[in-house]
Amino acid sequence: MHERVIPASPNWYCGRCSDTNQRGVMGFGARNTVHLLDGSGPAGTLLGSLCGHKERVSGFSFCRRAELDHLCASSSDDGTVKFWDSNQKVLIKEHSSHQATIVGLHWSPSDHNLVVSGDEKGVVVCYWFNTGDTSSFLPLPKTLFSLSCSPHAWNILALGYKHGMILLVDVSKKGEVLQRLRGHEDEIHALSWSPRTSPQDQDLARGQYLASGSRDQTIRIWNTHTGRGVTTLKLPSLKKRGGGPGGGAGGVKDRLWLSVHWPDDSPSQLLSTCFSGELVLWDLGPAGEHRGKVLASGDQNHRWKVLGSGDQNHSRIVFNMSSVCLAGGQRRLLTTSMDREIKCWDLSSLECVWTLSTLGGSVYSLSFSPVAVGRLALGGADQMIRSWDTLSLQNPYQTRTFWQGIRSKITALVWHPSREASLAFGTDDGKVGIYDAFSTKPPQISSSYHQKTVYRLSWGPPLSPLEGESCSLYSCGGEGLILQHAPRSLASPYKMSPHSDFSWKPDKTLVAIGNEDGSVDVYRAPDLKQLCSIQQQNKMINTLQWYPALGPQQNLEFLLASGSSSAKVFVHDLRAACESPTEPPAVISEAFRTLGGHMGKITGLSWSPHHPAHLVSVSYDRTAQVWDVLKGEGLVNYRGHGNRVMCVEWSPVDPDVVWTGADDFTVHEWKLSRQDFTSPPKGKKPGVPREKSKQKKSNMAASGQREAGPPSANGEREAKVMKRRKPRSILPLSTTMDHRSKEDLLEDCVTLATVTHCPAPPAGCVPGQGEHLHLGLFSDRHALHSMFLEEEEAHLAAGHPESVVYLRLWSGDLEGALRTATERGELNDHLMAMAPTGGYSVWVRAVQDYVKQLCLQDQHLKAASFLLSINKLHEALELLHSHKMYREAVALARSRLPDKDQVLKDLYVSWAAALERDGHLSAAAKCYLAAGADFDAAKVLSKKSDAPSLRAAATLARLAGDLLVHRLCFCVAEMLSSALTGSEDQSSHPWARQSSPGQSTHASGGPDTIQDRVRLVWQQHFGVTEGTGVESLLKDLASVEKSQLSTNSSPNQLCSLILPHGDAGVFSRRFRKILVPVAMGGIAAHASLQAVLNYHFLYDLWWSHGPCASETVTEGTVTEGTVTEESVPKESVPKGSEVSTRAVVLLSEPHAAYQNIRNAMADIQGRLAALMLHHSLVQRQENQEENQQEPAQRGEEQDSLLSLSNQMTRYQMDLAHLPDTVKMFSHPDVVECSLLVLHLARRASLVSEDVQITARGLLRRYASSPDTRRASRRFLKEDPGEDSPAVSDEA
After folding, report:
1. Residue 245, preceding bond cis, omega within 30 degrees?
2. Closest Cα to residue 121, out of 907, 1033, 855, 1162?
3. β-strands 529-534, 586-588 pairing
4. Interatomic CA distance for residues 739 and 247, integer angstroms
5. What are the start and end residues of every segment in region (Disordered) (predicted)?
6. Is 952 exposed, middle or buried (0-12, 13-18, 19+ CB in 10 A)?
7. What is the SS3 assignment for 544?
8. What gap in Å lies between CA 57 and CA 941, rounded to an integer?
9. Which end of the chain is more exposed for a tag (fewer CB within 10 A), N or C?
10. What is the mean pLDDT of residues 1042-1051?
């Protein structure tokens, strides 16, 4: 539809408002539109735009999957997230789950269905593109600033907050916080994950690095696995270059925006922005080489480089960066900046490839140079003038910007008729100046200026003698004055007033002046004799245009076109009135041609220098219309702009090209031959955007651009009549149909009478539907409900859902009204007051939905109150508790629950823990006292360690009485410590200075356990006996803090102390306490503990009755001394049945199989590692002979690798078939225990024959290592009738 477009500037102060897909297509948000740009070529080319948002676009992201990279998502300040097809430029779907302004958006690079967005309240919404499901969570109730999805794990999300905190959360677990990264001191501007590659560094391959840029002027790189910072990069102190647009004296002060970007194909390089628009490339080096260092400009190694040279850099701060690796291997980086330029960089050469200028405001004036053909000047609301060489072959968007000395909007431009470099401009504050386009000097500013906006500039003959000047500059302002300026000194010796516009005839002999009353006066120069007056328009003249001097038909040179606020263009032929003037001057009231069709005021006119009597007009109806004046008909209508069209110029070199500038911050080049329409759209007059009287400062700062409406081409000069706005009708369709012609209304009466009185209604007449929609109001109830349905659809299409709710309430569909309001998040107190009329279930469901809405709006107290209205007290308490509103939750619980309720106690304890973490110890002590935890209250007060706090803590302990539970715990810890360390004599407590457990005995003759001693001490010294109070005492003991045991004690020492009898089932012989496990897990744990005890028992037996002769081991043979029964004292040898019983527990077949499989798998893993090492060594060899043998070796390696992999698979399958209890609890090595049992059997008759057979069988099946095979060979040869196993000596 259009050829070239200068788009609107990318939005400022957005963390991720631009992105690039794998084909090099860049999308960026500009105002409420997303523009698509082809960044893969030698110059940037605009591909189109995505329109649909009502407010500023705050985020944009492409899908990272290759076959779906045409899909993209955008977020807006209107609270919506929209999904687009960038190829077709169509909207696919959208959601509006946010209740606050969205500040961040990212399409997950690891899951192509997940899109994550976050708003300024801290609420994060996860949207699944394939199903349309959403989930939201609030990991931290703080202002969110940026977010980034991990490219390595779909469920990991990084969140950056305004106060400098970075959170790593798991989206699959409702935002569970995994890590809190602390280090930054100010808002987090950008987050970037390490790329998804396979570098040398293992941490990078696992995706454990995250880069963050903050306003505190530092870049930090984090290890997300450990949650610690790896590197801190300080921005280099670069020499500040000359200020950019708006950066000089009196301009906008530069604010640092520190954005970071990690290129996908370069894990060792990191890109960041700097203070004044520079881009810095950080060389991180091999990962780990620089960890812990702070890199700054003072470093000797200088690990950073600045992209570009000279004027290639941005002149203001950079907001967004996105990179792409093209098919040809080109690595490109695209950046957006406050200087309103989009730049493309080559990351290989670090040079700028192309630059695209953008517009930061409405375009009010266009002007082609009459000398430098094809040079177009643009002026607008961003306080800058751009000179565009539209005929450049090297860069189709080659522009130069002028901003020095300009402090207001540019509203008028005109080139000098003979001086190529002289460009005159007028501003919104009434000033007139002249720029020298070939120099860098500030402009000349006129000493006289208008009181209001300058709307017209034109060069004409001097009306008073000006020495050395052949022409003068004329300006028309909003106050009605026309000033003449000397071009060298810009003095204003001549004034004409009051008028609204003027136009000099190209030969400078006549001037037409438009007035506020709609008249046009024509004067002869230089004496300003009035020749005629045109009385055709009835509204103020906005624009005048004479037929061009170089037009194709010179007989049309006296044609004058005028446009006004009446939306019509009048063309007058003034040849007779100007060539033969009369006295008094002639009054012309008949037009040569009247061109009607626009639906808004006319703002600009331009004659074609190529076609005879072709005229283009632009209007507030957002279109440009090309007319054939001689025929009086429209030829072409252009509808590419999204807002009011403000100016127009016909190309001086191409008859098929027209240029237009509009209020949508864009300039379009379009061809007449490629348009589909011939006339402006018919229908309702398009609305003119109005400025809001009050606008939040945050929105202005976030956009960074002047969103205020332009100075209307005539709006400041029109009288504004304030009319009271008529309320919107709730039945707009039927109301509209009642405003038709008289004949149609009479026909409705006849139709209604026919339907009422005739049994058969007319064909196709259904009241309440279609063309007879409005008759539903005068027919039966069914027709009325049908009319309501169509009215509801119209309201939804117009964006008025509240009217739909009212219609459904009126029709009695209360549940439907509540459902509609719930879906849109627009439930209110009025609807909740009416909900009980629909029944109890409807009321409860509505309250629950309203509570969810209120929680998203941070109205937790109101939400809790509504939960109380449906008698959900505990849900209300949980709501307040989950949002850290402890005081309110305690007040509610105290007023509704009994004093001894456990919920109230839990609230006090939670509140106390929070107060204790924040350092409010006195308040925490009060909460503990209210919860009945007197000891905890005293402990909290004693943390300050000052005299008053300790005195108060002692007083609390005294008033609370004897703290028996804590004294009992202290007693157990003291006795256990004394028994383990053997320092009973040094203890100051009498109950800890008793004899050791091994010396104390009871009636049965066995030793006392530590638990027996503890029970005796509790009875004798603390008076704890069996009775009714034991149950509560046990509960208190279970809840109190326990002291930790020292790690110096061995497990064997603890087992012998607690279970001296060697039986895991006997807890105490003195008091006959036996442990009987019931569940399967308990039985397995009991068996594991018993096996450990038996293992130590057998080894104690072995070492206490050691061999008589030392063992001698030689290669290939094992020689052992023998032990006879005579060599061991009879009284020290236990019974053979006891040894056999303990040995049976150790000789477990399932555990032997499990241990054998684990050993075999470990062996295979070692062989695989050795194989890989050998393979890498072979590849590095450069000897030619070895290279010739490499194919054969490689085949052997492949065969070995395949066989080892198959073995590993079989072992894993065998491992899966074993019971879980075998794999869960530890067990002594069965093969080792078998050898130990057979050794004991050879010394004495302590092991039965059945146990020996079992041990030999286990050795035969599971003795796999060389050592165990050699040790078991003697026992297996002695087994009668059994052959020795086939033992292989494989490593």
Report:
1. no
2. 855
3. parallel
4. 56
5. 675-730, 983-1007, 1114-1135, 1180-1199, 1264-1291
6. middle
7. strand
8. 53
9. C
10. 50
